[in-house]
């Protein structure tokens, strides 16, 4: 089936706005041609949310507590609530979050799923036939790593939360299965960053407290980083040194982190990232699309608008009350666009 879309296209890996027409055939972008006099729309690639914990969708708006009291395993508030929540409620709340992500323009996400095999299978059930690409990183319960056959790898909280020999063992067993090993580091302080790098993870999450030495080590090891700026704000963790990461040549993407802290929409994440940290619309948009796709290994099909890629696109109304009169479509998209500006998602 063939369809065409016309408007201002946020085109290619450099996200250069061009006026033109896209031809889509069987869900693939077949042709892009420049045109004058296009409709007042902005056509952008859908988001890749590179770090979530949608298991805690059941816990909305927790009290303002220190980070450890909220999320540290095994007895942080989140883990107590997850243990007490009936399976069906857990699945229903995750399904609601997945639907919300799709509706707000996200086409792929990477989730750290607690609860071992049962946790991973609950997320698979919540996904059902949803139109979204999910990469799932489970974690062991009682030493069991049977979840690995059902997901993309292991995602653990911090090297400070477990004995180092145990972390090494978990990493080894994950690799034996040919799966990815990923880890949080530098969220509370810098102490767990160098131990995390030694494990040669496929990517690191946060690095909020990384100094020059740690960033240099991450860059030398070629490890990509996912930053979660809104999450760091609400947990009072600080502001990640994003520009310094880029200066070191680190590949950086963005994620919304725990659903209990933030909505999983990438629109506020972009706005926050741009206004509190990185005043560079193009980079911010890249963090939220192409870089996440690259880190997850799906950039040949997602993350930007190019011929041959999958047509996961959002069309925004350039004449909405919010976007009316914009002269800089990429800047408006990053700094002020909202889900209610979307008129169509393909
Ligand atoms: Zn996280």
Polypeptide structure, described:
- There is one protein chain.
- This protein has 13 helices and 15 strands.
- The protein is an alpha/beta fold and 346 residues long.
- It has two domains: 88 residues, Roll (Urease, subunit C, domain 1); 250 residues, Alpha-Beta Barrel (TIM Barrel), CATH 3.20.20.
- The strands form two sheets. The chain has a nine-stranded parallel β-sheet with strand order 12-11-10-9-8-7-6-5-13, sandwiched between helices. It has a six-stranded mixed β-sheet with strand order 3-2-1-4-14-15, covered by helices on one side.
- Bound molecules: zinc ion (ZN).
- The site of zinc ion (ZN) has 6 residues, from strand 5.
What secondary-structure arrangement, pairings included, does this model have?
Blueprint: E1 2-11, E2 16-25, E3 28-34, E4 41-45, E5 47-53, H1 67-71, H2 77-84, H3 87-103, E6 106-112, H4 116-127, E7 133-138, E8 153-156, H5 164-176, E9 180-185, H6 193-198, E10 203-206, H7 212-221, E11 225-227, H8 229-234, H9 242-247, E12 252-254, E13 257-258, H10 266-276, H11 281-287, H12 290-296, E14 313-317, H13 329-335, E15 342-345
Parallel strand pairs: 1-4, 5-6, 5-13, 6-7, 7-8, 8-9, 9-10, 10-11, 11-12
Antiparallel strand pairs: 1-2, 2-3, 4-14, 14-15
Helix pairs in contact: 3-4, 11-13
The site of zinc ion has 6 residues, from strand 5.
Structural class of the secondary elements? alpha/beta
How large is the radius of gyration? 20 Å
Count all strands and give the number: 15
**Architecture of the largest domain, according to CATH?**
Alpha-Beta Barrel
Sheet having the most strands? 9 strands, parallel
Instruction: Please give the share of residues in helix.
Output: 25-40%
Q: For the largest beta sheet, what order do the strands appear in spatially?
A: 12-11-10-9-8-7-6-5-13
How many structural domains can be distinguished in the coordinates?
2
Helix-strand topology string: EEEEEHHHEHEEHEHEHEHHEEHHHEHE
CATH superfamily of the largest domain: Metal-dependent hydrolases
Quickly name the level 1 CATH class of the largest domain: Alpha Beta
> How large a portion of the residues is in β-strands, by DSSP E?
15-25%
Distance between the termini: 13 Å
**Count of DSSP H/I helices:** 13
pLDDT averaged residue by residue? 96
């Amino acid at each position: 089936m063939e369809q065409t879309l016309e408007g201002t296209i946020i085109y290619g890996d450099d996200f250069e706005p061009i006026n033109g027409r896209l031809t889509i055939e069987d869900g693939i972008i077949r042709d892009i041609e420049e045109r004058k006099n296009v409709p007042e729309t902005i056509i952008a690639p859908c988001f890749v949310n590179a770090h979530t914990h949608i298991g805690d969708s059941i816990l909305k708006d927790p009290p303002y507590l220190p980070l450890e009291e909220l999320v540290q395993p095994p007895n942080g508030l989140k883990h107590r609530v997850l243990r007490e929540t009936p399976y069906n409620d857990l699945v229903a709340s995750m399904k609601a979050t997945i639907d919300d992500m799709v509706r707000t323009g996200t086409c792929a996400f990477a989730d750290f799923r607690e609860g071992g095999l049962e946790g991973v299978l609950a997320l698979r059930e919540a996904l059902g036939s949803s139109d979204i690409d999910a990469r799932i990183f489970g974690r062991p319960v009682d030493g069991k790593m049977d979840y690995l056959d059902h997901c993309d790898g292991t995602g653990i909280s911090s090297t400070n939360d477990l004995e180092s020999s145990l972390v090494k063992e978990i990493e080894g067993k994950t690799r034996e299965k040919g799966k990815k090993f990923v880890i949080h580091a530098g969220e509370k302080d810098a102490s767990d960053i160098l131990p995390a790098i030694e494990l040669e993870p496929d990517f690191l999450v946060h690095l909020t407290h990384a100094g020059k030495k740690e960033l240099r080590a991450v860059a030398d090891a070629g490890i990509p980083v996912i930053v979660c700026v809104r999450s760091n704000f609400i947990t009072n963790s600080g502001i990640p040194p994003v520009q310094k990461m880029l200066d070191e040549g680190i590949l950086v993407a963005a994620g919304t982190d725990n659903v209990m802290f933030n909505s999983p929409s990438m629109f506020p994440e972009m706005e926050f990232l741009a206004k509190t940290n990185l005043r560079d619309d193009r980079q911010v948009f890249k963090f939220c699309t192409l870089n996440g796709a690259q880190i997850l290994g799906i950039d040949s099909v997602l993350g930007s608008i190019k011929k041959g890629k999958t047509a996961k696109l959002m069309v925004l109304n350039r004449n909405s009350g919010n976007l009316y009169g914009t002269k800089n479509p990429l800047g408006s998209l990053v700094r002020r666009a909202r889900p209610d500006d979307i008129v169509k998602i393909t």
